TrEMBL record:
<protein>
    <recommendedName>
        <fullName>L-lactate oxidase</fullName>
    </recommendedName>
</protein>
<dbReference type="InterPro" id="IPR037396">
    <property type="entry name" value="FMN_HAD"/>
</dbReference>
<dbReference type="Pfam" id="PF01070">
    <property type="entry name" value="FMN_dh"/>
</dbReference>
<dbReference type="GO" id="GO:0010181">
    <property type="term" value="F:FMN binding"/>
</dbReference>
<dbReference type="InterPro" id="IPR013785">
    <property type="entry name" value="Aldolase_TIM"/>
</dbReference>
<keyword id="KW-0288">FMN</keyword>
<keyword id="KW-0285">Flavoprotein</keyword>
<dbReference type="InterPro" id="IPR012133">
    <property type="entry name" value="Alpha-hydoxy_acid_DH_FMN"/>
</dbReference>
<keyword id="KW-0560">Oxidoreductase</keyword>
<feature type="binding site">
    <location>
        <position position="212"/>
    </location>
    <ligand>
        <name>FMN</name>
    </ligand>
</feature>
<comment type="similarity">
    <text>Belongs to the FMN-dependent alpha-hydroxy acid dehydrogenase family.</text>
</comment>
<dbReference type="InterPro" id="IPR000262">
    <property type="entry name" value="FMN-dep_DH"/>
</dbReference>
<feature type="binding site">
    <location>
        <begin position="267"/>
        <end position="271"/>
    </location>
    <ligand>
        <name>FMN</name>
    </ligand>
</feature>
<feature type="binding site">
    <location>
        <position position="236"/>
    </location>
    <ligand>
        <name>FMN</name>
    </ligand>
</feature>
<feature type="domain" description="FMN hydroxy acid dehydrogenase">
    <location>
        <begin position="37"/>
        <end position="337"/>
    </location>
</feature>
<dbReference type="GO" id="GO:0016491">
    <property type="term" value="F:oxidoreductase activity"/>
</dbReference>
<feature type="binding site">
    <location>
        <position position="234"/>
    </location>
    <ligand>
        <name>FMN</name>
    </ligand>
</feature>
Length: 337
């Protein structure tokens, strides 16, 4: 199966909400929740995509060719590409019941592992969603990052311990999910957490802890003070608050605030290896992608995940060749405009 065949197959399987648009830009699905759309006017999602289009790459093919290396080392592990699957939950609600959260997580974990990267996995109202995901991570020698919702401090710490027992080599929290009213409607509300609570959570484990949902230098500063390993610049795909800035728009101020003290990841509107190149040029260590991975799973399961990841990796390598970057450290602001 090739990439285009996978997309056509996904259209048959993914349900009525997602149209598997030629450009996954948030316009056709704006306001569709349940579904993959951004909240309200959908501007958080739409801006993520459109602001990435405003950044151009500077061609340079006059240089000594030393080969192209897309590898990155994080969490003490080496990955083939700086591209990871972002956590996606509630797939039966937002897509179709061909997959549930457990079978979806298994497909994305296995597919990413085969492609040499990792998946950040989701959490849910039912405990078996999280514990089932951990079984898939354990089966892949810890190659997955369980992502916990901002439940109570006690429950978060409990789930971190479960992650440790599963052999996960990092753990994350999508604190931007604090605005997901759909969880409260299912009987299990989430809420913001104080810096003090966050620090206690971070100190409860020796695993690298990643905080997802950082959208300003001020919040990045709080995350550093809490002791996190890294942050993910994310507005939750525009699904929790309308009219936010795009993630690529706020990335430079966060990178400046962090000054290399912690790792910086980013998601939001990333659709190609060229998009990943842009984020790295602006100081990110790696990028996460969500909706296209859901499309890939519904199109061809773990094979679709592997296929899509390799596509992104090839595009990144091609961009590096055409801009004179032999490795990720050579991708800087001189390569873009």
């Amino acid at each position: 199966m090739n990439y285009l065949e996978m997309l056509e197959n996904s259209k048959k399987n993914i349900g009525e909400f997602c149209k598997v648009c030629k450009e996954c830009n948030g316009i056709s699905c704006k306001g569709k929740i349940p579904g993959p759309g951004g909240k309200g006017l959908g501007l958080g999602f739409i801006r993520n995509y459109e602001d990435l289009r405003k950044i151009r790459l500077n061609m340079d093919t006059v240089y000594l060719n030393k080969g192209t290396n897309t590898e990155i080392e994080l969490f003490g592990k080496k990955f083939k590409y700086p591209v990871f699957a972002a956590p996606v939950g509630g797939v039966q609600i937002h897509y179709s019941d061909l997959y549930n959260d457990l079978t979806y997580s298994k497909a994305v974990i296995n597919g990413c592992h085969k492609a040499g990267t990792i998946a950040f996995t989701g959490d849910g109202v039912k405990d078996e969603v999280f514990t089932g995901t951990l079984k898939a991570i354990k089966a892949n020698d810890g190659w997955g990052v369980p992502t916990i919702k901002p439940w109570s401090k006690e429950e978060v710490i409990k789930k971190i311990k479960l992650s440790e027992n599963a052999g996960a080599f990092a753990v994350a929290m999508d604190i931007d999910a604090a605005g997901l009213s759909i969880l409260a409607a299912q009987g299990k509300p989430v809420s913001p957490l104080s810096k003090e609570d966050l620090k206690e959570i971070v100190n409860s484990t020796k695993l690298p802890f990643i905080l997802k949902g950082v959208m300003s230098a001020n919040v990045a500063r709080k995350a550093i003070e809490a002791g996190v390993y890294g942050v993910i610049v994310s507005n939750h795909g525009g699904r929790v608050l309308d009219e936010t800035p795009s993630t690529i728009e706020v990335l430079p101020e966060i990178v400046e605030e962090v000054q290399g003290k912690i790792k910086v990841f980013i998601d939001g509107g990333f659709r190609s290896g060229i998009d990943v190149f842009k984020a790295i040029a602006l100081g990110a260590d790696a990028a996460l992608i969500a909706r296209p991975y859901a499309i890939s799973v519904y199109g061809a399961g773990e094979e679709g995940v592997e296929l899509y990841t390799e596509k992104i990796g090839r595009e990144l390598a091609e961009a590096m060749i055409m801009t004179g970057a032999s490795n990720l450290s050579e991708i800087d602001e001189d390569k873009i405009r």
